[in-house]
């Protein structure tokens, strides 16, 4: 199940004709209430897509009736014309749902710098509205319609013993280095929580889930995560809700990691002994982004020297004489020196755990990433994909 | 001609047996005076190789008689034993040249985390000393002995109308994102300049040459540039010398760019209209490091949206509505929007010029980089190369 798992939500995913391939490209997720509280986070990229500019504005009111999402075009770097397309999309959905345009969030994903075919999108919103339904099938259709280079739809569902539920969907396989948000993700809940509680829970969850995923260091112009609450169930304990939401977001982030462009290895980089959590994130992220570390992962090569070099230029505080590096449980570097035969570490499997001790404090953090493979180069060197 | 181009220098490059392949792996560059002024810059990586720690110390005195360089091993992350190897290397060269060990700089390059075979290196220093000679052949031998994944030796020579000369050699094809220095480079001059003048000239030249080259964003543990002056010619005008040294360093940097691991495109990223030079460098460097931009270059794809996204997350100040992007002379993005058909830009040749206007100031900077190709992935995924 997906965004339709909680009570009070319907969804649809259809082929509007935005993608030349004719594949599904437009999704609609509607909150039928009785409450319409919402929160969201968007990319910190200074070049923001039109739908991001729009959604940032409407999120200020803490109320959303629906989210319209399209693949087949990012509507980024499209100027006033692109913004008008987003605005018209929200107005169309609002008209159909009998609410105001400011209660409609809009998300887009695809190639940057091309105008969306406005009428095609508006007709698609009408078709999606006509197709709205609750249940598994409609939720999966919505999750499928937002895919770009994703090879599988990514969804999550959780039911709390207290009765409330969380559902979610996400997309993203490249240009993934979220900052305050990631790609497109819609989360739903029937827990009765107000916008402020949702905002607090969402920021806490995103910070340690989507924000700790780094596929290629490229922060998108379109990253958006929206959380809507229908209030169809009882109020939830905020702490329990935040914890469940965090687990759901980490689940979606892991699905994006597993389906990343060209992935052959899923790597988890854990940095400990840092002076601060920020420093631990900085060191782990620098390792995760280093092209030489990523190609070594692809080659199943326990080349810990490249990890040491990356930590060294990351800017994180460290003691070179207390630097330890462990790969898949084998200590390869102890106190800044070789700890034994590097070939003792077996990296031939699909999962790699890299643990680094900086030796200056007690803070730690984890970043999930992937390798840099021939398939990544192939997929991203094709014409304007 | 190379480091032996100025009067007062001899060099040698020999196969000491450090590399298992039996290829040349040890170089010696000797200043025969009458003066021995020197300057140098080393990596800012916090994980510094033993020879970097040594050379940083001896450079404080502003006097060098010689530089010993080896390929076949970085002598980084090798602890006290590695530092003793560097110290013994300097002592051996000093004994042969009749000077103090503090007048000998040492540079190493190769795999991180393995001890160098100390006796092999010391015997190599003796063999190199015996082979010392002036002239073209000896200079080329030295430049060849420091190669790792380089496919060609990289040298430069300049003769000023005033009579003084500059020579130089460098190596480096990957793990190149220098900061205050790049890989291993030895520059020589017969101009009569003191250590302070050399230091000033070298820092000015490096800042706009090696420091503006970024192949893969990975800063090495071993980067070192050393400049030695024999004083065998007349004193040079400091401004003229700095200018000539800058041209020489840019020439060597361009040679490293052209021979980068897996390179199929040489890209120059020019950012203008920045609030400061630092901001221009930040934006240009972020573009140069972005995996999606680099794979698009490999695919000859004028995908300017990826450049816009990279500029947007770089942290540089910019006005999204005044953002212009030009590729190979074709304006593709004007005022943050598509300026026409992107296919008008032809990227099929080996050289690509990317020009970006940030629209907020008048500062500019240029970074040279390369594409991200299958060959880069292939070369760097091989076992512990």
Structure overview:
Two copies of one chain form a homodimer. Chain A has 385 residues and is an alpha+beta fold. Chain A has two domains: 9-258, L-amino peptidase D-ALA esterase/amidase (4-Layer Sandwich), CATH 3.60.70; 266-381, Ubiquitin-like (UB roll) (Roll). Chain A contains ten helices and 15 strands. The first copy, chain A, has a six-stranded mixed beta sheet with strand order 13-12-11-14-10-15. The first copy, chain A, has a five-stranded mixed beta sheet with strand order 3-9-8-7-6, sandwiched between helices. The first copy, chain A, is globular, with a radius of gyration of 21 Å. The model of chain A has no long low-confidence stretch (mean pLDDT 92). At the A-B interface, helix 2, helix 8, helix 9, strand 13 and helix 10 of A face helix 8, helix 9, strand 13 and helix 10 of B.
Throw out a few tags for this protein.
10 helices; 385 residues; homodimer; L-amino peptidase D-ALA esterase/amidase; five-stranded mixed β-sheet; Ubiquitin-like (UB roll)
